[in-house]
Design brief:
The chain is of the alpha/beta class and 145 residues long. The chain contains four helices and six strands. A six-stranded mixed beta sheet has the order 2-5-1-6-3-4. Strand 3, helix 3 and strand 4 form a beta-alpha-beta unit. Helix 2 runs parallel beside helix 3. The longest helix has 10 residues. The mean pLDDT is 95.
């Protein structure tokens, strides 16, 4: 039994093997996960039904489980308003820097060999995709035995 709320074995395994600078993709239900992820990434499907689970819910658990250094979001074409999902990500991640990437730039970033984990959600919001870069543990977060 674990003393953490993150219990998914595949996600735990992928995160345990990832280090500083590795990336984690949180994909919405529209994302082409079979073609736009890194070759070495583990893919975990949490898309049971539309709307179950969404990226924000998964992000909340991950933020309590690992340090995040930076993030990237997929944004719509220039001139279109910022989707609500992106504003929600920025609020949850504050003060972590969030970089905006166009659709194809985001796909290229997610195809990086640094992608350790792709979590496919059933988020029905447009542009809810999020790419996290794992940071380092801060002083005092490890207790020597």
């Amino acid at each position: 039994m674990l003393l953490t709320e993150l219990l998914h074995p595949g996600i735990l395994e992928a995160l345990a093997g990832a280090g500083h600078g590795a990336r984690v993709l949180l994909a919405d239900g529209h994302y082409p996960a079979s073609t736009a992820t890194g070759e070495r990434a583990r893919t975990v499907h949490l898309n049971l039904a539309p709307g179950l689970l969404d990226v924000s819910t998964v992000l909340d658990v991950l933020l309590r489980s690992l340090p995040v250094e930076s993030a990237q979001v997929m944004v719509p074409p220039q001139g279109e308003p910022e989707p609500l999902a992106i504003a929600a990500h920025r609020a949850r991640l504050n003060p972590v820097p969030v970089e905006a990437l166009g659709r194809f730039e985001f796909y290229d970033a997610a195809r990086s060999p640094d992608l350790a984990l792709a979590i496919v959600t059933a988020d029905i919001r447009t542009y809810a995709n999020l790419l996290l870069t794992i940071g380092v543990r801060t002083e005092g977060t490890l207790t020597p035995r």
